[in-house]
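DM from R.C. (forwarded with permission)

"hey, sorry to bug you on a friday — could you get me a structure for this? deadline for the figure draft is monday and I only need the backbone to look sensible"
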Amino acid sequence: MDNWNILLESTADGSTVATVLEIPDCQTTDETKQGAVEKVQQLLQKRLAKAEIIKIPVPVQASTSDHPLMKFAGIFKDDPDFMEIIKEIRAEREQDSDI
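My reply, with the result:
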């Protein structure tokens, strides 16, 4: 990885805390923002010199719990009265949009 996200935070005493967001325990403090960035960069380089980054597949399981309202989906599918109501609503909306 070439680019890392660094969170810079000012403390009450005016110093800056720099944290590598991808590695939260890789953190340092300095009196200046630039100093904190340089220090955290050095810490990251030292840590990565002894480490290896690999990618692993993690299968994503489909959700077993459906949304509670999904049991009502499609209940009016074959209801002619419902279709008539939908047509009336659509006609009213089209009429209102012409105004």
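R.C.: lifesaver. The first helix runs from residue 33 to 49.
me: no worries. The mean pLDDT is 90.
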